[in-house]
């Protein structure tokens, strides 16, 4: 997490942003949350979508996503976790995402990020409750009620902790809110 925080900070420093807003989805939400907690003076607004960042037991969907092994059928199963409406997932999308996943070194790098046991990676992305409570920027929290990757309880907990937060939970909506 420290390396990713440093990368974002170096990027915004390089392009000359003193203040900026963040949108973070899933793992990116954990990163955005930590940045907002550690660099409050630089964050204007925050949007968290199906965000990691508080403790939870790893869901079957997240374990499947992080454990993806390249094949079109496997990609199709992973995509089924993301969308509540299975009509959004067709063979063309699965094939295109599969092709992207087999680019040179891509899968090796991805698999190395979250090896088993994977619960430890969820735990490593947790930001301390007191640090989350200290976030002062307006925060929008979005979550799909039928999200099978990140439990909706994570967004409820973030809503409880962040003082200036709004929570929107969408029905008939999975992880791709």
Low-confidence runs of at least 5 consecutive residues: none
Work out the helicity level. Answer: 40-55%
Question: How would you characterize the largest beta sheet?
Answer: 4 strands, parallel
**Average pLDDT, to the nearest integer?**
96
Number of strands: 4
What value does the Rg take, in angstroms? 17 Å
What count of helical segments does DSSP give?
A: 9
Instruction: Give the end-to-end Cα distance, rounded to a whole number of Å.
Output: 24 Å
Please write the string of helix (H) and strand (E) elements.
HEHEHHHHHHEHE
SSE-based structural type: alpha/beta
Q: How much strand content do the residues show?
A: 5-15%
Q: Identify the strand order in the major beta sheet.
A: 1-2-3-4
Task: Explain how this protein is built.
α2 (27-38) links the parallel β1 (20-25) and β2. α3 packs antiparallel against α4 and α4 (72-82) packs across α5 (91-101). The chain starts with a helix and ends in a 7-residue tail after the last strand. The model has no long low-confidence stretch (mean pLDDT 96). It has a four-stranded parallel β-sheet with strand order 1-2-3-4, covered by helices on one side. The protein is of the alpha/beta class and 177 residues long. Helix content is 47%, strand content 14%. The chain has helices spanning 2-14, 27-38, 60-66, 72-82, 91-101, 106-113, 119-124, 129-133, 152-161; strands at 20-25, 43-49, 139-144, 165-170. The longest helix is centred in the first third of the chain and has 13 residues, at 2-14. It has nine helices and four strands, in the order αβαβααααααβαβ.
């Amino acid at each position: 997490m420290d390396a990713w925080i440093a990368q974002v900070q170096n990027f915004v420093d390089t392009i000359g942003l003193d203040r900026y807003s963040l949108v973070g989805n899933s793992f990116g939400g954990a990163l955005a949350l930590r940045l907002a907690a550690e660099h409050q003076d630089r964050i204007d607004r925050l949007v968290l979508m199906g965000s990691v960042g508080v403790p939870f037991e790893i869901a079957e969907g997240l374990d499947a996503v992080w454990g993806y092994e390249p094949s079109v059928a496997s990609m199709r199963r992973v995509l089924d976790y993301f969308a509540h409406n299975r009509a959004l997932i067709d063979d063309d999308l699965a094939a295109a995402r599969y092709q992207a996943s087999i680019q040179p070194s891509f899968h090796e790098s991805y698999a190395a990020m979250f090896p088993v046991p994977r619960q430890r990676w969820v735990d490593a992305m947790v930001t301390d409750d007191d640090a989350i409570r200290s976030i002062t920027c307006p925060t929008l929290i979005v979550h799909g009620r039928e999200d099978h990757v990140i439990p909706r309880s994570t967004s409820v907990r973030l809503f409880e902790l962040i003082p200036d937060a709004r929570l929107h939970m969408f029905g008939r909506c999975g992880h791709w809110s």
